[in-house]
Amino acid sequence: MSPRVGVVLFPGSNCEQDVVEAIESLGGEAGVIWHGATELGDVDAIVLPGGFAYGDYLRPGAIARFSPVMGPVADFARAGGPVIGICNGFQVLTEAGLLPGALQKNAGLKFLCRSVTVRVESTRSALTNQAEVGQKLTIPINHFEGNYTCDERTIAELRDDDRILFTYVDNPNGSTSSIAGICNAARNVVGLMPHPERACHPLLGGTDGAIVLRSLLAAAGARSGI
Amino acid sequence: MWQSDRMIFSVLVEVQLRPGVADPQGSTIERSLPALGFGGVVGVRVGKAMRFTLDSADAAAAQAEVAEMCDRFLTNPVIEDAVITVTEAAGV
Question: What's a Pfam family in this record (chain A) (predicted)?
Fold first, then answer.
């Protein structure tokens, strides 16, 4: 049996099918969960995909965090289940308080849509366990609000606890400490701005994202005892 | 004279980035103004304003309710805070 990944669809998400396709191409099972669902069903991991949930009204993720599905997602996360937020999903996780900090408008006010190189800073997480520290991955970004911001105490905590997972080699958006991805204290909730699902096939220009999503499948499989 | 125990308040919520939080919009505007011949502008900060009416028992209750809205929804306390102005609009 393959690990089962539930991909949440908010009104305005637009990367859910890409994530499903990528997960299935890597041997996992994936299905879309409507944001109005009040239970997650039988899943081993959850992905909040990219897009513009609720049109990014008020702030990205500000309304999505109150979707009915977010209660069960938070319970799943507290129980140790892998929960990954990609791009807009990362913004939802910070608004929901499942990850610290916030994602501000990019320094320079440009919407950025291009491949970037990120460095793996820690392999102790649901999304980096198949990578190596120092490994450089080329993965696309596609965002206007990816400028990771937090207070001094939070950044010190993230550093001390080895919770910065990815940094940009060439900081494109002004993120504090060049942060591209972080995890929670229990290391099962991860947010990242780059889109690994868009770098899982040579036809898409690269396969470095597969290393990231294979880590998720490994974490999901370990959890379900597969 | 009959008096309702409810009142209508006009509410203005001005959301701003916390001091010290970088403001990419503000700095872009600040850099653009000299090109149009407006010199001497410093410290541009961009925020947003929300206006609504609120039915509440009294001004203190209205203020408290809006403060909670800001805390839970209207602002992201990690990077933003709000100035709340509550004014009595009319009796119910």
Answer: GATase_5
Per domain, the residue ranges of chain A are 4-224
Residues 166-185 of A with CB under 8 A from B: 174
Which tokens in the block code for residue A190?
A: 């991860």
Specify the range with the lowest mean pLDDT, choosing from A91-105, A145-159, B18-32.
Answer: B18-32
CB contact set of A219 (below 8 Å; sequence gap of 6+): A45, A82, A126, A127, A129, A188
Of A15, A16, A87, A121, the catalytic one is: A87
pLDDT tens sequence across A33-44: 999 999 999 999
Provide ipTM, 2 decimals.
0.83
Q: CB burial class (10 A; 0-12, 13-18, 19+) of residue A165?
A: buried
Q: What is the pLDDT of residue A146?
A: 97
The alpha carbon torsion through A142, A145, A149, A154 (nearest 10 deg) reads -70
Distance CA A23, CA A29 (A): 7
**Domain A4-224 homologous superfamily, CATH:** Class I glutamine amidotransferase (GATase) domain (3.40.50.880)
Whole-number mean pLDDT of chain B? Answer: 92
Q: What is the mean pLDDT of residues A125-141?
A: 98
The answer to whether the CB of A65 falls within 8 A of the CB of A54 is: no
Closest-CA residue in chain A for B19?
A151
We report the CATH number of the domain holding residue B19 as 3.30.1280.10
Which of A70, A91, A105 to probe by mutation at the B interface, max B CB count within 10 Å? Answer: A105
Q: What is the pLDDT of residue B7?
A: 92
